[in-house]
Amino acid sequence: MFQYDFMQHAFIAGTLIAMMCGVIGVFIIARSLSFIAHTLSHIGFAGAAFSAYAGIDPLLGLLLFTIAGAVGVGQLGVRMYRRDASISVILSLALGLGILFLSLGNIQGNYSRTLLFGSVVGIDMQDIWQIVLITVFVLVVLAVGYRWLKFDSFDQVGAQSAGLPIRFISIGFLLLMAAATSVTVQIVGALLVFALMTVPAAAARFYTQSIFGMILISTLIAVLSVWFGLIAGYYTNAPISFFIVFFNAISYFFGMFFHRVRERRRILVS
């Protein structure tokens, strides 16, 4: 398997993206932004379709559209946006724009499936360097702003009382989500981006109460899911994204079962 360059590239790119998603996902879950991650993935689909229509680098189109979407969400106000029914309109509009650009550009069906479901085995060295740059950027920014972000994500009232720049943190985090979404589309596609960015983190909450522990477990689950997806996809010729999501779902349900058993034991002991 590893004698092929495309599999080597896939493992390198997949591991980097999984690490990034595992870390940022903990804060996405804590800030209740799962649905916004889903929205950004649809916006990313429109951006990638526009890139194909305009004949530019797909990552550039993804970044332009997702960053614009993140800024728009930030201007609306994250809390209001989560409650606003306009999220359905934005999701529908983004999907419609993606279909329109694909139609105008006379894009082949294979490319459409790649946008929707990903194609990690089609990644080359240029893509890897792009992924490295964005992954390092996202992780470095998260590390630098870790204290503020942790405080605001897990204790919003306390962060506001302490005078932290809440709006600045919210918009900054949305921009990081946009960057993460842009590169993750290449692995699992626009339809399943939010799964890799949220399910490992959601599962990690069942295994530990420590924030740093959640980050480690979430990252581990995300990385293992990508490795499992690549190996299973290689030997079965089935979609890699399915195996990635399947592994994450199993991790989540096992974590839920583990949590319930632990709580029952605690009740019996007490």
From TrEMBL:
Transmembrane segments: 6-28, 35-53, 59-78, 85-108, 128-149, 161-179, 185-204, 211-234, 240-258
Keywords attached to this entry: Membrane, Transmembrane, Transmembrane helix, Transport
PANTHER family: ABC-TRANSPORTER METAL-BINDING PROTEIN, IRON TRANSPORT SYSTEM MEMBRANE PROTEIN HI_0360-RELATED
Cellular component GO terms, alphabetical: ATP-binding cassette (ABC) transporter complex
Similarity annotation: Belongs to the ABC-3 integral membrane protein family.
Cellular compartment(s): Cell membrane; Membrane
Signal peptide bounds: none
InterPro entries: ABC_BtuC-like, ABC_TroCD
Transmembrane found in the keyword field: yes
Membrane topology, as annotated: Multi-pass membrane protein
Organism, scientific name: Sporolactobacillus terrae
GO biological process: response to zinc ion; transmembrane transport
Protein name: ABC transporter
Primary site of residence: membrane
Superkingdom in the source lineage: Bacteria
